[in-house]
Amino acid sequence: MVEKISDSIIKIAGKIDSNNAKQFEQELLSAADGLGEATLDAAELEYISSAGLRALLRLKKTLGATVNIVNVSPEIYDIFEVTGFSNILNVKKAIREISVEGCEIIGQGGNGTVYRLDDDTIVKVYRPSVSLDKIEKEREYAKNALISGVPCVIAYDVVKCGDSYGIVFEMIRSDTLGHAMVKEPERFDEYMDKYVALARELHSATLADGVRIKDELHERVPNLKPWCTEEEMELLHSLIEEMPDEECIIHGDFHPGNIMIQDGELLLIDMPEVTVGPEIWELTAIYRDLVAAPSNFQERVRALMEKSTGMPVELLKKTGISFFERYMGIDEKEIEELFKKLGLMYALNVVFVLASGSPQSLDRAEPIIEHLLRGVVVPNEQALRHILKMKF
Predict the structure, then answer these.
(1) Which of residues 131 and 98 earns the better pLDDT score?
(2) Is the pTM of this model over 0.70?
């Protein structure tokens, strides 16, 4: 029933019921003796009764630390869910493996490719460099957003696909907002009104168990250590703390390529960094994608946004300007002043976007980080402190 297979992993297997639960508990406590945290591999666990669950609970109380149970089959996971033990123990389902061979590609972006699995589901397969932890976070973000009433698709489960991982989502039988705006230019104003209305709905909603953007950004600062001085890293931490503790939902990638139209309703389909925080951070991300990227002097940046949104550069620019005019209720002159502020925020935003990448991508981004950090962020520290506190 119990076998210690490494310094930190214990395998539990077979059927655990009232007949052998006492023996199971003794073997479990013996195997976990001296561990600060226990990880139980349940790949070969066939059944567990209430007596077995109580043994796991005693293990947790004895250790006084987290008990992780991994590779749990769907049937066993249901037992943990129904009994509420999934709220007490850190239980993770076994990741099922799927193949996308022969599946239609319906979208591509910077992090991966979206395939149609069947009439009801799609799968977003991430690049191998995207960690499983980050992918599981996105699924959790999507789940919390849906529970909070945010118009978005259902994220079913995390899967393995070859050397990569992905998330299975419900299939929306319609087009993206970006594609619709290209195909039906005469409906531009109608689509813009819907786009702005979705942004307002998102930013006025409350996210259950939301991750604070401030906490997320603080965690990224150490990733910049190879290229930043201690003083620069302290400056970044200090700027993060200037952000007001607002509860605005921040999508982080709110462009028309990540929004589907279903029966006239707009639904979000990509939730990589859904957090809560100040509205200025979300507006900066929208400025980054719809205003700054289409105007970037690097062809690859413009091409990436065209690919991600399905929209040509000129339409992206038009959409960006129209969004801020309608969302803020301001004229052309006021737009120029706003864009000056968002231009400074853009530099800070991109530094943190790059800081969330893999070590390999960070190496390639070193010149960009250095230019934005030392050429824009540091010289404009005081202006940024003021902008970060702005209310809209």
Answers:
(1) 98
(2) yes
